[in-house]
Amino acid sequence: MTDAVALSVAVSEPSEPSDWLREPPRPSDTSDGSDSNSQEEYDQKLLAAVRDGSWLDGQEFPELRYAVPGLLPEGFSLLIGPPKAGKSWLALDFLLAVSSSRQAVGKIAMSGKRRVLYLALEDGDRRMQDRCRTLLGEDPIPELFHYMTEIRPGFIIHTLEAFLRRYPDTSLIIIDTLGKVMPPAMPGESAYQRDYRVAGALKRVADHNPGLAISALHHDRKAASEDFVDSVSGTHGLAGAADTIVVLARKRQATEAVLMVTGRDVIESEYALVMDGGLWTLDGVNLTDAAATAQKREDAASLGDISVNILAFVREHPDGCKAAAVVTKFGQDAYQYLKRLEESGRLIKPKRGFYIAADAIPGMEDDES
Predict the structure, then answer these.
(1) Which end of the chain has the least Cβ crowding within 10 Å, N or C?
(2) Angstrom distance (rounded) from CA 362 to CA 147
């Protein structure tokens, strides 16, 4: 059975376990006392995939490749957000940027034109053309941009593998939405098992094609959660199988949003975005600047102006700042603000009269102790 067929069966219909999943036959004694299948052969089958440190130390692996630098690395990712939040506009922006070498979200430079596939399963040709022209302006829709508005039910993996056989240079595939291709659970299969099976199959397609990024759009839970990974709708099977999770957080009718990114290979961070007429733009000159803007927005939403300004001042000193310097700039009342910021966990006081921003210490902003 080929990889393509095996993956398709894994998603579309029940099947018997493939041979490599079956338990190898155990050694059995024969009448003359010899083993027909020796213990050594049995162990060899079980341990065939074991590698040692010497082998690993001698390998030279290619660098991780990104479809969208800093945001979408190769592998399987989920793009999460509430309905009508602008996920499809963001996905189309990524696809057009990759296929035309224009800047993604208005600020992230691409390195050359690369082929993409958009499974726009909630759209039609007219809407696709209108949205592409909205984002591209006078520029033509790139030839390396491919799309489909429908596929045969249960044939998502077949379809992806067929496209990749025809176009092995594909860099980015986006599925809009995952719910449109999600198969029913097999008999006796839990929702978690179904979610992990589907996400795992999509991940294997990406893994079998080095440099390829596959991203699936999916709705959020609609319930608030402190950990944005928990916002993924469905069981943890989806999030568990994904290499990268990207969450678009935007309030209804708001023009500002935050793009939260985490994963096995990306730097976990939050980036500020703004939307204008369907066009998403990074709120900053680059990702680092957009991350700072996202932090300022969060501070402004929960703190007063003076606290925000004091916190920003301390952040300007990554190695720490003396309380006296804060008081000199903001007056005697700054001591009370520093105390409140420390109590809220935003500032750390490693020694008397000295403060460091918690987010300037790796991992400290997530420390609950």
Answers:
(1) C
(2) 41
CA distance 266 to 269: 9
- Are 123 and 149 in contact by the 8 Å Cβ rule? The answer is yes
* Token digits of residue 153: 């039910």
Q: How many domains does the chain divide into?
A: 3
Helix boundaries (H) for 253-302: 287-302
Q: Are residues 156 and 222 in the same domain?
A: yes
- pLDDT range class, residue 33, cuts 50, 70, 90: low
Q: State pLDDT tens for residues 262-278.
A: 998 888 899 999 998 88
- Of the CA atoms within 13 Å of residue 57, those in its CB half-sphere come to 3
- The Cα–Cα gap between 273 and 288 comes to 13
Report if residue 243 sits inside a domain: yes
End-to-end CA distance of the chain: 52
In a domain, 180, yes or no: yes
Domain containing 204 equals 66-285
Q: What is the mean pLDDT of residues 272-300?
A: 89
Interval 162-180 mean pLDDT: 95
Q: What is the DSSP letter of 276?
A: E
* pLDDT tops 70 at residue 7: no
- Residues 147-179 as b or e (16 or more Cβ within 10 Å = b): beeebeeeebbbbbbebbeeeeebbbbbbbbbe
Structural domain includes residue 128: yes
In the three-class reduction of DSSP (H, G, I as helix; E, B as strand; rest coil), residue 242 is classed as: coil
**pTM (2 d.p.):** 0.74
Angle at 111 between CA 171 and CA 58, to 5 degrees: 70
| Same domain (yes/no): 146, 235 | yes
